[in-house]
Design brief:
Elements lengths: L5 H10 L2 H14 L5 H4 L9 H4 L4 H6 L4 H15 L3 E3 H12 L5 H13 L4 E3 L2 E6 L15
Antiparallel strand pairs: 1-3, 2-3
């Protein structure tokens, strides 16, 4: 995950005391939980994510079995990722308007987000009603369990 910064990390570790080196290494382990959404997303052998389609030519994307609903869900994931991978329903409604000029129906959007949670393409935030994220944090229980 930190490969492109490995040289800098090694230089920092070299100047730290043994005690601080251990703390720094623990910090790096913890930071792994908070990488960018596209880096954090666990490999899913079934569902495509927007970052998997980024560098594909349009001809190839046309060959994929994506329907209008799939494309809309991929767009929702892209929008959530664009603001850091976590968003409230209200903010998503505003973002849809600002980004696409779409006035989303709250009930329909919430139903779609719940379907996406069942498919585990997005996740709820524990104890935060109407807040969604595009990744599951390792070791953390989310509210998706009751959705299935």
């Amino acid at each position: 995950m930190f490969d492109k910064y490995r040289e800098l990390i090694n230089r920092i570790i070299d100047v730290l005391s043994k005690e601080d080196q251990e703390l720094f290494n623990n910090l790096l382990s913890e930071l792994h939980l908070f990488t960018t959404p596209s880096e954090r997303r666990d490999f899913d052998p079934i569902h495509l994510s927007p970052h998997e389609l980024l560098d594909l030519p349009p001809e190839l994307i046309k060959q994929l079995a994506l329907n209008e609903s799939d494309n809309y869900e991929l767009e929702l994931i892209r929008l959530i990722d664009s603001v850091g991978g976590i968003i409230s329903l209200d903010k998503l409604i505003v973002l849809l308007y600002r980004d696409k000029g779409e006035i989303a129906d709250r009930v329909q959007l919430n139903a779609r987000l719940n379907r996406m949670m069942r498919k585990e393409t997005i996740f709820s935030v524990p104890k935060k009603k109407g807040v969604y994220r595009t990744t599951r944090i390792k070791g953390e229980q989310d509210d998706n369990e009751g959705i299935k």
